[in-house]
Design goal:
Oligomer: single chain
Bound molecules: coenzyme A
Order of helices and strands: EHHEEEHEHHEE
Largest sheet: 4 strands, antiparallel
CATH topology of the domain at 14-109: Aminopeptidase
Strand content: 25-35%
């Protein structure tokens, strides 16, 4: 008789607002998360600068006291960066971070949520459009401009 495969639930995580995280801890987490995604053309020093920008808000995903992902949101509804540690990818962390950013963007009065991303993540943005709002994806070479029309509250 064939046995059923054992399915384990994805690890639980929580979303934390950035101002509760110390700068040193946040900078170290950015380095660790980025190092885990070797195929992504990121710029850690630019992301770290956003930590000190009063017009941006960070949300972090945390599990077992470890920071495993972040999204950075500008008050204008632009998302300069989102990243999830490779070992925690495909467990709903990116979706939860984008939903949190979209909620805040709406609260700030934005009707759109915009970002530029490598084309490899386009299916991720399509997957979450039902929860955030209709998405337009314009491919420009290796990158895509992603624009969500945010659903009303
Ligand atoms: C893109 C990224 C943020 C997605 O985060 P994630 O935590 O893996 O995404 P989730 O687990 O929340 O995925 C949500 C859905 O999208 C799907 N998905 C995620 N990444 C995908 C991909 N690259 N291709 C196809 N589907 C993808 C998931 O399977 C899931 O589908 P489901 O609802 O059917 O289960 C993450 O892969 C990442 O950090 N990439 C490198 C950095 C990057 O490209 N940032 C964007 C530009 S700043």
């Amino acid at each position: 008789m064939q046995s059923e495969p054992i399915r384990t639930a994805p690890p639980p995580f929580k979303i934390i607002k950035g101002h509760t995280i110390e700068t040193e801890t946040a900078e170290a987490a950015i380095e660790t998360i980025h190092a885990s995604i070797p195929d992504w053309h990121k710029n850690s020093s630019i992301v770290k600068k956003f930590l000190h920008n009063r017009e941006t808000t960070f949300y972090w995903a945390s599990t077992d006291g470890k920071l495993i992902g972040y999204v950075c949101l500008h008050r204008t509804g632009c998302v300069p960066y989102i990243a999830v540690a490779k070992s925690n990818s495909r467990s709903g962390v990116g979706r939860a971070l984008m939903l949190r950013a979209a909620k805040k963007a709406r609260k700030l009065g934005n009707q759109k949520l915009e970002l530029t991303s490598e084309n490899s993540a386009n299916d991720f943005y399509r997957k979450i459009e039902n929860e955030i709002g209709p998405v337009k994806i314009e491919i420009a070479g290796q990158y895509s401009n992603i624009t969500y029309s945010l659903l009303p509250h």
